[in-house]
Specification:
Shape: globular
Largest sheet: 2 strands, antiparallel
Distance between the termini: 64 Å
Strand order of the largest sheet: 1-2
Number of domains: 1
Radius of gyration: 21 Å
Structural class: mainly alpha
Strand content: under 5%
C-alpha cells in the first residue's frame, strides 16, 4: 500500500507539472513556442520529464540523508533508478544531437562557433548557481571567519571546471545542489571529443563500426580514469549510434510512431526501474530501446509534442540545476520542515507542492539568465 501511495503522488506530481507547463506556455514570454516546429522531435518534449524525475530521486535521497547522515540510495529501488535513468537518457540526447550535427555538417563543422555556443548555453546559469552556493555558505555564521583566499581561488577553479569539491569549510558543498554538477564534466568531455568523433565518422565505414564496438565494450567495463567512470561515456555512444541510424534509415521507421510501440517502450522503461543493478546489460538495453523509439519520432501517445511538454523541455536545464538548491534552502538552510520528524511516505506528499515551486523558479531563471545568454551568444556568432 505504501508503494502505491508513493507512486500515486509521483504520478500526480507529473500531472501537476503538465498542467502548470500548459499555463506557462500560454504566457506571452513563451509565445515563440506557438510557432516552433519541434527542433528535435519528441526529444524536446522528453527533457522536462527527465529533469523532474531527477528531482524526485534527489528529494528522496534528501530524506535518507537527513535521517541517516548519509547521502545514500532511497529505500525504493524505483526512486533510486529513476534519477539514474534520467541522467543516462540526458547523455544519450547529447550524443544524439551532436553526432547528428556532425553528420549534417559533412566535415564543415565550425568548431569555434560550436564551443562558444556551449559556453553561452552552459556557463551563465551554472555561474548563477555557484553564486547562490556562495551565498548559502557565507551567510551561515560558522563560515564567516578565517577565510583563506588562496584556497578559495583553487576551490572555485575546480567548480568552474565542473570538478566540484568543498568550498571554504563547508563539508559536502555539492549537496547544496544535490550533486548535479558531476554530469557537466561528462558533457564537456564529450564536447571536447567531438573533433575526434568527426574524424572517426569520416573513416572507412567498417573501420568506424569496429571502433564503435570496441568503445562499447571498453566503456561498459566501467573503468575509472582520473575522475571519470567510463560507463557514463557508453550512453553518449548509444545516442550517437541512434543519430547515425536516424540519418541513414529514417524512412524505414514510420511504424515506430504507432501507439503499440509507445506502449511497448513505456513497458521497457518501467521494467528498467526495478533492476537492482541499473547498469547491468539488460536494463541498459531496455533504456536504450526506449530512447531509440523517442529519437525516431514516437511521441508517447502524443504527449511529447504537446506545448506543455515542449515548455518543460525548454526550461529543463534550469529545473536540473536549481532543484537541489531549492531543496537545500528549504530543508537545510531554513529547515521549514524537519525531515527527521516525518516518515518517508509523508515526505512524498510534498512532491506536487515542490514541483510547482521548482518549475516557477526554473521559468524565471530560464527567462532572465538562460534565454538572454543564448541570444547574446547568437549575436556574437552572427555579427559580421
Amino acid at each position: 500500500m505504501e508503494h502505491f501511495i508513493k507512486i500515486s503522488f509521483f504520478l500526480f506530481m507529473l500531472l501537476v507539472s503538465y498542467f502548470l507547463g500548459t499555463k506557462i506556455a500560454q504566457h506571452r514570454k513563451f509565445y515563440f513556442l506557438q510557432f516552433r516546429n519541434n527542433r528535435y522531435g519528441a526529444i524536446d518534449g522528453l527533457r522536462g520529464y527527465l529533469a523532474i524525475s531527477i528531482f524526485v530521486h534527489h528529494f528522496m535521497l534528501t530524506w535518507v540523508w537527513k535521517n541517516t547522515a548519509h547521502w545514500y540510495r532511497p529505500q525504493e529501488i524505483y526512486f533510486q533508478n529513476i534519477g539514474i535513468v534520467g541522467v543516462m537518457i540526458f547523455f544519450m540526447i547529447t550524443g544524439y544531437l551532436f553526432t547528428a550535427k556532425i553528420l549534417s555538417d559533412k566535415g564543415n563543422t565550425n568548431w569555434i562557433k560550436l564551443y562558444k555556443s556551449r559556453i553561452f548555453r552552459i556557463y551563465p546559469l551554472f555561474i548563477f548557481i555557484l553564486f547562490m552556493i556562495t551565498l548559502v555558505i557565507f551567510t551561515q555564521e560558522q563560515y564567516q571567519s578565517n577565510i583563506n583566499f588562496s584556497l578559495l581561488a583553487e576551490q572555485y577553479s575546480k567548480w568552474i571546471l565542473f570538478h566540484g569539491g568543498n568550498i571554504h569549510t563547508h563539508n559536502h558543498t555539492s549537496l547544496i545542489i544535490a550533486g548535479v554538477d558531476w554530469t557537466l564534466k561528462y558533457e564537456w568531455l564529450f564536447y571536447l571529443s567531438l573533433p575526434i568523433l568527426a574524424f572517426t565518422l569520416n573513416l572507412n565505414k567498417w573501420f568506424t563500426i569496429l571502433l564503435i564496438f570496441i568503445g562499447i565494450y571498453l566503456f561498459s567495463q566501467d573503468y575509472k580514469i582520473f575522475s571519470f567512470n567510463t560507463i557514463h561515456l557508453l550512453f553518449f555512444i548509444i545516442g550517437g549510434i541512434t543519430a547515425y541510424l536516424y540519418s541513414t534509415t529514417k524512412d524505414r521507421f514510420a511504424f515506430i510512431q504507432s501507439n503499440i510501440i509507445s506502449g511497448l517502450a513505456i513497458i521497457l522503461l518501467i521494467s528498467s526501474l526495478i533492476f537492482k543493478d541499473i547498469y547491468a546489460p539488460l536494463p541498459i538495453l531496455f533504456i536504450s530501446l526506449f530512447f531509440v523509439v523517442i529519437a525516431l519520432g514516437n511521441t508517447m501517445f502524443g504527449l511529447l509534442e504537446k506545448k506543455s511538454s515542449i515548455l518543460l523541455g525548454e526550461i529543463s536545464y534550469s529545473i536540473y540545476l536549481i532543484h537541489g538548491l531549492i531543496i537545500y534552502i528549504l530543508f537545510s538552510y531554513f529547515n521549514v520542515i524537519d525531515l527527521t520528524s516525518i516518515s518517508s511516505i509523508e515526505h512524498t506528499y510534498m512532491f506536487p507542492i515542490l514541483i510547482i515551486l521548482i518549475i516557477a523558479c526554473a521559468t524565471l531563471t530560464y527567462l532572465y539568465i538562460e534565454q538572454p545568454s543564448i541570444k547574446l551568444g547568437k549575436k556574437v556568432f552572427y555579427k559580421k
